[in-house]
Write a structure and sequence with these properties.
Blueprint lengths: L5 H5 L10 H19 L9 H5 L20 H16 L4 H13 L7 H7 L8 H9 L12 H7 L4 H12 L6 H18 L8 H6 L3 H10 L16 H13 L4 H10 L4 H16 L6 H4 L3 E3 L7 E3 H12 L12
Antiparallel strand pairs: 1-2
Helix pairs in contact: 2-14, 2-15, 2-17, 4-5, 4-8, 4-17, 8-10, 8-17, 9-10, 10-15, 13-14, 13-15, 14-15
Amino acid sequence: MTPTSPEDRALRPNGRSGADRGARAVGAVVGSAVGDALGAPFEFGPPGAYSSRFPDGTGEMCGGGGWDPGEATDDTQMAVLVAESLLEAGGLDLPDVFARFRRWAAAKPKDIGLQTEDVLTSGESWDLAAAKHFRINSRAAGNGSLMRATTSAVGFARAGRTATMDAARRIAALTHGDPAAWEGTAVFHDLVRVALEGGDPLASVDEALAAVHAGHRARWAEVLRPDWHPDDATEFNGAVWPCLGTAVWALRTTGSFEEALAAAVDVGGDTDTVAAVTGGLAGAVYGIEAVPERWTRPLHVPLPGYGGRVLRLADLVSLAGRLDGIAGIGHQKNYT
């Protein structure tokens, strides 16, 4: 795969299709789930495994590593729980989100992050569990809050930069006590907001960074700089910094949704989450029409703890449309 140069991107309006807002919202939610399922079989594999398996660049939902073709992981499962809480509670109800997470974790999902599992099974209350975990372990900057953020990013986008970034921090803090994870999730929320409005998220990185807490701004600016490459990462991409950095790099150096996902998975490591974050951002840029049917057709999202429910494409499309339609969600009475 040949990366797209900045000059090539300049030949197209912001490097995107003419998708309307609704198509971009659906593209974000479905795109994140697609990235999750596409990357899952390659998780913890070496760099280049995707292009080695699909040398012509036309990847398939292949399954493997315990995952069926098209099966989404905990990334999308948790994103669905966030979305359904926002819709059913009429806004951000943090105890409700946490209770849904806890019910899901108790059902022993096929995959769950170690930190997330520790927090959700600790028996602590929603407002203390993650903070206590962080005090004990001193490290909690995994990408687990970022992986599930696309649905909330769509839901809060119409509320504006300040409200969407604040919501991201609050939801992230339910399972991740390290403010670095909060700030990365907040940046992602704002980049999705810009894309849904038809803007170029790559051109708005500096504006998002200006809203990051001053103590974390320099670290985030490093991984989001225009010449950053995944090889520059100082941590495994299960950490929040290289995860988001790789997603932005994949969008910046490619010219289509498919290319962005292929680039993200080919980095190796935590491929399902890196591709889920990339898919959410790229889907918001290119819209649902850019997501191949060969990827959406087998897509399915099991929801442990919820009566054997399995969401499919139509369910995710409906969810995205409802999330995008709840203007002003950031001002609901149960936001705090």
